[in-house]
Amino acid sequence: MATSGRKSGWIGPALALLTALCLVMCCAAFAQDAATQSPKAEAPAKEAPPVEKAPAEPPPVEAPKTEAPTTEAPKAEAPATEAPKTEAPAAEAPAVPVPGPAAPKKWFSGRYEATVDAEWDKDDSAAGLNQTLKLDITPPKYPRLRVHGLVWTNVNLDENPSENSALHDLNYASDSDVRARLLDLYIEYDDLWGDSTLRFGRQRILESLTTTRIDGLYFRQQRARWDWYVFGGARASLYYDTHDDLAVGGGVSWTPLPRTRLALDAYYADENRDEGGRRTFWEDLAGLSFPRRIETDLSDWLASVSVWQRITDDLTLFGRLRFKDGKPDELLLNATGFVPQWDLTYEVRYLNRLKRAGDRVDDLTAYFRILDYYEQYQDFFVALHKPVTAKITLSLEGEIRESEEDSWGTGNRDYQRFALIGGVDDIVKDTNLRLALERWNVEDGEGFWAITGEASRTWGGLELTVGTAYERYKDRLVEYRAWPGILNQALVWAVPGYYLTSNPLVFLFDDWAVETREDIYSVYGRAQWEFKQNQALNLRVTYEEDESPDSPYWRVLAGYTLHF
Q1: Using one digit for the tens of pLDDT, what is the confidence trace for 205-231?
Q2: Are 439 and 448 in contact (CB under 8 A)?
Q3: CB-based contacts of 430: which residues, under 8 Å, 6+ apart?
Q4: Is residue 521 within a helix (H) or strand (E), and if so which, with residue range?
């Protein structure tokens, strides 16, 4: 495995020192809790009310829902005048009953989900079992201490489909038929130092400038108008784990006024890859596929300045300027609000990528990376939500993307997107209806249409849904011919001093654009049944037909959920 020569020598000792310090503080806090406990009956511990954490970005304001008034059955009341009771003599009065011991507090909870996913077409089939187990543990004697765990497993129940099959997904990139991932396993302790939270172990950091999973430490404290956090550890991605990749970060926010909040965040991560892309002369001569050359070691420095400003109770503004390696990288401006006179909820967003985005540190998986640059662009987005009547709600979305290097030869083209979404609640007894129309207008005459609709009805703990969708794609694909490149390599090999790319045949004939059109029709049904308290079964069946030779496609998902 390649190692990076750019690592800072202070990161490892600093993390070790921070880990030891936090463990010592935790042990001292546990000893203090145990010393203050009485062997007699204890009064219930009072916990401070949880402090809401400000999100990285303000959540969109939801349209107000109109709910039908709830009619409750009148409760039987005791008569105003009661018959006088005959009291027993004082000597015969029964003793006051002594209350029994309180029921033990539940010290663990969680959720278990299991889903069988089966799909097939004319030539291939695939089936798998996905399971997740989430467990939260709170020792009764230490209410400030918690343990959180989350495990995900995937098991192949069928032979792997061919690599060119539409059923082939990322899970089949592994040679093993059984995959298990420890997504979370960390200890959390509250109020170690004032109003604070300490986490140690494998965890997902959400408050950071970027979302990342680490094996390490996280600490956050709120004090008066200040809120700050720090974290550090080895990065642990979804499909592979390596402790050669480090991530550290931190941030601080300040509320100078009741309606104003300022924040500064910073993040550093490195990624040491096994190897870069390789290409030999003989592979070129034989016309083999082109393995892109990638950097074997990456490091990213990110920072951002954020501002939240509540203008009125119905209007909130947000802005963020992000920097990469000390240079402006991305600008985000957002406004969410509500107009009471029109009963209208809205969101307006402007996003500007200020420079090209090349290959970067990625925490999702080892298989997905940006292998080419992502050019600069500007993006405008508007969403409106309005209840038309007590039962009907309409939503309108619009988006415009303007790329600086728009071309059919790149994956980043100019487009305009429009969507109209309508919902009718209780159109008939306990039945809801949803309709949507979406249009993507991409440059060079390309685009996408989608029309979807579904109806759902509820009977107690059972909910049934049926739906249908029509999608139409119109796009351009780039195809390549091998012979111009082979001829060019042969000339380089045979003619001394011949330049590699001087052959005009390569530029004129090695690739061309092919227009494609495809219509996709699908219908589906979904059922969810809560047959017991905290237990539910769900089933979804989808039938899809398009113009590919393997059509039609069937997919069945059946699952079970248990909350405990």
Answers
A1: 988 888 889 999 999 999 999 999 999
A2: yes
A3: 457, 458, 459
A4: strand 511-532
Judge whether 112 and 561 are in contact, CB under 8 Å: yes
Cβ 297 vs Cβ 275: under 8 Å? no
The Cα–Cα gap between 409 and 480 comes to 12
* pLDDT at 155 > cutoff 80: yes
DSSP 3-state of 474: strand
In sign, the C-alpha dihedral spanning 206, 208, 213, 218 is negative
Residue 404 is given by DSSP the state: T
Query: What confidence tens digit (pLDDT) does each residue in 187-199 have?
Result: 999 999 999 999 9
Assigned token pair, 478: 């780039």
Mean pLDDT over 172-181 rounds to 81
H or E stretch covering 221: strand 212-223
Q: What is the reported pLDDT for 409? A: 58
SS (H, E, C) 86-103: CCCCHHHCCCCCCCCCCC
**Cα(507)–Cα(487) distance, integer angstroms:** 13
Identify the residue whose tokens are 């006024």: 257
- DSSP string over 128-164: EEEEEEEEEE--TT-TTEEEEEEEEEEEE-SPPPPTT
Two structure tokens written together for 383 = 């969403």
What CA–CA distance (Å, rounded) separates 125 from 70? 49
**164 conformational bin, left if phi > 0, alpha if psi -120 to 50, beta if neither:** alpha
- Give the single-character DSSP code of 430: T
pTM over 0.85: no
The identity of residue 478, as a single letter, is V
Q: Which of 325, 316, 326, 321 is nearest to 306 (CA)?
A: 321
**CA distances to 237, 240, 363, 370, 547 from 367, in Å:** 11, 10, 10, 10, 29
Span 278-298, pLDDT tens digits: 556 666 555 555 555 555 678
How far CA 463 is from CA of 81, 529, 537, in Å, comes to 47, 6, 11
Q: Which two tokens stand for residue 120?
A: 């097939």
Secondary structure (3-state) at 515? strand
- Residue 250, class by beta-carbon neighbours within 10 Å (0-12 exposed, 13-18 middle, 19+ buried)? buried
CA atoms within 13 A on the CB side of 62: 3
Query: Could you tell me if residue 476 is left (phi over 0), alpha (psi between -120 and 50 degrees) or otherwise beta?
Result: beta
Task: Burial-class residue 90 by CB neighbours within 10 Å (0-12, 13-18, 19+).
Answer: exposed
| C-alpha–C-alpha distance, residues 269 and 557, integer Å | 38
127 touches 158 (CB < 8 A): yes
Dmax over CA atoms of the chain, in Å, equals 124
Retrieve residue 546's tokens. 């398009």
Residue 26, CA atoms < 13 Å, CB-side half-sphere: 20
Give Cβ neighbours of residue 387 (< 8 Å, ≥ 6 apart). Answer: 63, 64, 65, 66, 343, 393
How far is C-alpha 154 from the chain's CA centre? 19
97, 485, 488 from 491: Cα distances, Å: 103, 10, 5
3-state secondary structure of 366: coil
